[in-house]
Design goal:
Elements (H helix, E strand, L loop, with lengths): L8 E4 L1 H29 L16 H27 L3 H21 L5 H28 L1 E4 L2 H4 L17
Antiparallel strand pairs: 1-2
Length: about 170
């Protein structure tokens, strides 16, 4: 079900969608950096870089943040395509994102590194994926515009107290 009347179609406003996607990319990059800082600084877990590189890590930190931002932009592109081509873009987007998040969480668990690094990376990927899915989904919902059914929009407007045309005048 949706909140639109029968016969109404929706369009997506690409400017609003992509502006929200750009903002989501910034949030995703910051979630990645915050997750790495928490893992390295609070829990002393080596994530993406050895301890000798310190709490900020090395170039892998920047790569991880840029990859998170790129994932947000790809998710925005996916939502744009789904909004143009499918009858229920939010449902398809939710399923696709949930499966990508599962893959992003399981992948680090298969690596031959310390268990702390595996779990920390999986949790950071979960946080990034959840942020991207939630923000892109809500941005797309607010970027939808209603195209009213033309037949309903051309109805005459009557003045207060004016009889409808189907009542006999008497």
């Amino acid at each position: 079900m949706n909140q639109y009347a029968p016969g109404d179609a929706t369009d997506v406003d690409p400017k609003r969608l992509w502006a929200g996607g750009a903002a989501t990319a910034i949030v995703a990059a910051l979630v990645a950096v915050a997750g790495l800082l928490i893992a390295r600084g609070l829990f002393d877990v080596e994530v993406l870089a050895p301890k000798r590189h310190g709490i900020w890590g090395n170039a892998n930190t920047v790569t991880y943040a840029v990859s998170a931002a790129a994932a947000a932009l790809l998710a925005t592109g996916l939502m744009h395509v789904l909004s143009l081509a499918t009858p229920a873009p939010g449902q398809f987007f939710g399923w696709i994102m949930a499966l990508f998040i599962v893959i992003a969480m399981v992948l680090p668990l298969t690596l031959a590194v310390h268990i702390g690094s595996k779990v920390a990376t999986a949790l950071i990927n979960l946080a990034i994926g959840f942020a991207i899915a939630a923000l892109v989904s809500s941005t797309a919902a607010s970027a939808r515009r209603i195209r009213r059914n033309a037949r309903r929009d051309t109805a005459e407007t009557r003045q207060w107290g004016e009889q409808p045309p189907y009542y006999p005048q008497g």
